[in-house]
Amino acid sequence: MSGFPSADVFELGAEHEQVVFANDPGTGLKAIIAIHSTALGPALGGTRFYPYPTTADAVRDVLDLSRGMSYKAALAGLDLGGGKAVIIGDPAALKTEGLLRAYGRFVQSLNGRYYTACDVGTYSTDMDDIARECSYVTGRTTAHGGAGDSSVLTAYGVFQGMRAAATVAWGTDSLAGRTVGVAGVGKVGHHLVRHLVEDGAHVVVTDLYEPSLERIRMAFPDVRVAASTDEMVAGPLDVYAPCAMGGALTDEVVDVLSARIVCGAANNQLAHPGIEKSLEVRGILYAPDYCVNAGGLIQVADELEGRSLRSERSERLEGFSFERAQQRASGIFETTKSVFALAEADGVPPAIAADRLAERRMRDVGRLRGIWLRG
C-alpha cells in the first residue's frame, strides 16, 4: 500500500489494544480508528477529517492522538479510555452524508468500545449524521439533545490551565496586562481569545486561514494580527498558546521563544521527546497539552450523563448540562496546579509529572479484566 508505514503496525502501536482500518469505496471513506486503552472504560475520542499526505502520516497521527486521549481522560478523572479516529481526505471536497453514515456503521461495529465526537474537520452536525447509523456518538447538536460544539469548554479549560500557570510564574491567577500569543484562532482559539480579552490580556494572533483572522478582527478590534507565527513567537510574549495542529514546539521555536509560559489547546505540542527538558532549561513553564485541553472531552463526556452506556440507538439523548460540564472543566485549574506541584516535588518537567499522575490513575483504578467489552 502506497504511503504505508515501513515499520510493523504492531511496533508503531505497541501500547494500543486495537487499530481498525475502515474502507468504503462507494463513498470514498478511508478511515482509521485507534483504541489505545479501555482500562478505565470505553474509549472516547474525536474524529479528525484531514488530507494526510500519506497513509503513514495518518497512522502515526491517530496512534499519537489516541494515546493522548487515554492520558487526558485519566488526568481529568473520567471513567473513560482513550481512542481517536481519522478520516483521510479534504473534508471540503470529500465529506458527504453518505460517507459519514458509512463511517458510523464502522464505529457501530465496535459495539461500544469506541465513542466518537468532533475534532479538526468535523462538527456537531456531522455527529448527527453519524448517529443515524451509530449509537456510540457524542458531541451532537443541542437540537438532538447533545452537548454541541465542544470547542467552547476546550477553550475554557485552556484558560483555566493558563491561570494556574500564571499563579506559578507570577503569583496571580490573572492574565491582565500580559501579552499572550495565540497561534490558530479557529474553533478553540477564537473562544480562548475572548476569555483573554475579557481578563485584560494583550492578545496577538496568527492563523493560516484568512476568514478566521477576519472574524477575530471583527469581534476583537484591539487584538493584533501578526504577519506569521514565526514573527509572533520571536517577538515579546508572556504566554504562547499553540492552538492549531501538533508539533508546534520544535527546537527552533524553543530557542527563540521569549514567553514565560506555554499553554495552548493543540494536541501533541512537543515535536519530539526531550523538548520538555529544553523548555525547562530555558525557564519556560509548560502546561501539558492534554491536561489543559481536556475541557472539550469533559463536555462531550457529560452528554453521556443520564443515559446508560448500554442504551439502544432508539433511546433519546438526554442528560447533558452545560453548567455541570463547565463546573467540572473549571477543575482543570486545580489539576494543572497539581501537575506543577508534582513536577517540583519530583524534580521533573511538568510533562513527565502529568504522565505520572495519569498512569497512576490508570494503574490504580483500571479494570482488572484488561479490555472493556459492552455488557
Automatic annotation (TrEMBL):
NAD(+) binds at residues 184-189. It comes from Nocardioides szechwanensis. Belongs to the Glu/Leu/Phe/Val dehydrogenases family. GO terms for biological process: amino acid metabolic process. The keyword tRNA processing does not apply. Residues 148-370 form the Glutamate/phenylalanine/leucine/valine/L-tryptophan dehydrogenase C-terminal domain. This is Valine dehydrogenase (NAD+). Keywords: NAD, Nucleotide-binding, Oxidoreductase. The keyword NAD applies. The active site is at 84 (proton donor/acceptor). InterPro entries: Aminoacid_DH-like_N_sf (IPR046346), Glu/Leu/Phe/Val/Trp_DH (IPR006095), Glu/Leu/Phe/Val/Trp_DH_C (IPR006096), Glu/Leu/Phe/Val/Trp_DH_dimer (IPR006097), Glu/Leu/Phe/Val_DH_AS (IPR033524), Glu/Phe/Leu/Val/Trp_DH_bac/arc (IPR016211), NAD(P)-bd_dom_sf (IPR036291).
